[in-house]
């Protein structure tokens, strides 16, 4: 059986549990979910390959399990949410993804029509403009147009009301990779600086203010306990401060390995390991030697896992030292269903200190 790890989503469909059989977690809340529960807009970013979309899906599921009506928005031509949430079809949206949860994939061309319709007499004229070849070339070449109209529609969804009430309690956005996230989020501020007056400038100012407002808008970084993702997260935090005059709301450090031995017995284990190495019974190849003694392979495997744990704790400490935001670790989860991985991560993120305890145990 092929096993998937939650660094990225798997291509498998939902297992027999399906979307409907999620454990209900009642009023249990972790510090991360408690903090995000106060924000209407939640942007999630991270270096490519760290499990950003998986964590986005898990955050959505966790908030939905708390009874919060939650919309997950993607801005990529390729949508990850059908696999991660067990939707079973291409997402256009907003499409149902379980109780209290919806998913939507925003395309720049459709966002452009919706945004333009507010400034011209009709949608028909807006579509005619978008379909015009000369206009398409101009808008594709013009800096920041696609980003602006996508951010505009994200804000529209967050502010949408029916019967005088907000349709969604939370809108979670799966942003581009962290190397582009600050540029993406800075577009409204840049446009306002260029235009100053007019309806588009007014809207750009409104969007820029919303992104900077730490009371209503969260920016969450996802990373792995490895040098490059951690350094990029630290750089992201600094760039947000310099470009948008705001802080990260939180960091989720993904795939943190647990301590493979009882903490009180670690010294004993290390003494045994040293003795076996001195006797030539354990070396770097022991874990891969199919014909080797079981004890040697067991000790070598635990030594390898102990090295991973120490590395992860080093980078966890570095993040806590360098980033002015709460850092939440989540453990490695092995499963052949991306849906069950998301559900398990949602549970970890929702339990009070559950993620940190699981990663440290």
TrEMBL record:
Source taxon at top rank: Bacteria
Residue ranges constituting the ArsA/GET3 Anion-transporting ATPase-like domain according to the UniProt record: 40-196
Database matches in SUPFAM superfamilies: P-loop containing nucleoside triphosphate hydrolases (SSF52540)
Pfam family, one: ArsA_ATPase
GO molecular function terms listed in the Swiss-Prot or TrEMBL record: ATP binding; ATP hydrolysis activity
Endpoints of the signal sequence: none
Similarity comment: family membership: Belongs to the arsA ATPase family.
Name listed for the protein in its UniProt record: ArsA family ATPase
